[in-house]
Write a structure and sequence with these properties.
The protein is an alpha/beta fold. It folds into 3 domains: about 120 residues, Periplasmic binding protein-like II (D-Maltodextrin-Binding Protein, domain 2), CATH 3.40.190.10; about 80 residues, Periplasmic binding protein-like II (D-Maltodextrin-Binding Protein, domain 2, 3-Layer(aba) Sandwich); about 90 residues, Porphobilinogen deaminase, C-terminal domain (Double Stranded RNA Binding Domain, 2-Layer Sandwich). It is built from 10 helices and 13 strands. A 5-stranded mixed β-sheet has the order 2-1-3-10-4, sandwiched between helices. The mean pLDDT is about 95.
């Protein structure tokens, strides 16, 4: 009989929104279980100035939380799943993926809310190489500057430093109910999202089989399959969030359609392909799509980014 569940999460407003969503779902279905939240400061939270590539890239928002899970100071680690590296410690696993939210990237302008109406040479703030590369493919005249910090900090910096605009995930704006923020939503043809963007993941210790009833309640099977395909795609490319790699899976009539992209830093080379297969073979679909892009030169492109 489970009596207590300890949830670990970052302390930002968005992270706590996600953790509290999980807490409320558990309490709704298991009213006798006491659920407590533990906020954990990650490396990415401590340093909100340096580019992600300088402070480690992979896992800067998740490693400290994973350590708490390994050390048994929490039972569930709740992540924005796009931050969780596609490979994890052998003792841990992705136990559940909640129903996925909005996946799109959006442009928030200081004065012009339509990305396509920005003046020549406009400056956009973004720390994401994936976003930069895809924007340069559309508008090679755009200039970039780094942008770190939580959602509120990024919006404040937009006005403080008078950038022409910033780019964020739509899911963050919707979840924090920022109704006063006007934005342009990029189409999937314009900008493919980060792997698992818009998804919330619950990470657990493999040995904790007693948590399976809780994970079953939290998990949305279609979201789990789509995210699994995307993460398998990323894992085969041996890449992380600091590289220009994107993927998005969607399921219709038990068929999983997966789009994947690898780009050069300057956006002048875009490798993009799509495959469809049985939703039950999600990981295989992800690996197969990665192989297709590797045959087109994806690993060479990623090597250039590393150098």
């Amino acid at each position: 009989m489970i009596r207590n569940i300890r949830i670990g999460s970052r302390g930002s407003k968005l992270s706590l929104w996600q953790a509290n969503l999980v807490k409320s779902e558990i309490e709704k279905h298991f009213p006798l279980i006491q659920v407590t939240l533990k906020t954990i400061q990650t490396e990415g939270d401590r340093d909100q100035i340096s580019p992600l590539t300088q402070i480690g890239g992979k896992g800067v928002f998740t490693k400290t939380i994973e350590k708490a899970l390994i050390d048994d100071t929490i039972d569930l680690a709740i992540h924005s799943l796009k931050d969780l590296p596609s490979e994890m410690t052998d003792s841990l696993q992705l136990g559940a993926v909640l129903k996925r939210g909005e996946v799109a990237d959006v442009f928030i302008g200081l004065e012009e809310s339509d990305f396509h109406k920005l003046p020549h040479g406009a400056t956009i703030a973004s720390d994401s190489i994936r976003r930069r590369a895809q924007i340069l493919a559309i508008r090679p005249d755009i200039k970039f500057t780094d942008l770190r910090g939580n959602i509120e900090t990024r919006l404040n910096k937009l006005h403080q430093f008078r950038y022409d605009g910033i780019i964020m995930a739509e899911a963050a704006i919707v979840r924090l109910n920022l109704k006063e923020v006007n934005y342009y939503r990029f189409t999937l043809d314009e900008m493919l999202p980060a792997v698992a963007q818009g998804a919330i993941g619950a990470q657990v210790r493999k040995q904790d089989q007693h948590l399976q009833p809780i994970l079953n309640i939290l998990n949305d099977p279609d979201s789990f399959r789509c995210v699994s395909a995307e993460r398998a795609f990323l894992r085969r490319l041996d890449s992380g969030c600091q590289f220009p790699v994107a993927a998005y899976g969607e399921i219709e009539d038990d068929k999983l359609k997966l789009q994947g992209l690898v780009a050069s830093m300057d956006g002048q080379t875009i490798l993009k392909d799509t495959i469809t297969g049985s939703a039950s073979e999600a990981e295989s679909i992800g690996k197969t799509l990665a192989e297709k892009l590797i045959d087109q030169g994806a690993l060479q492109l990623l090597q250039e980014v590393q150098n």
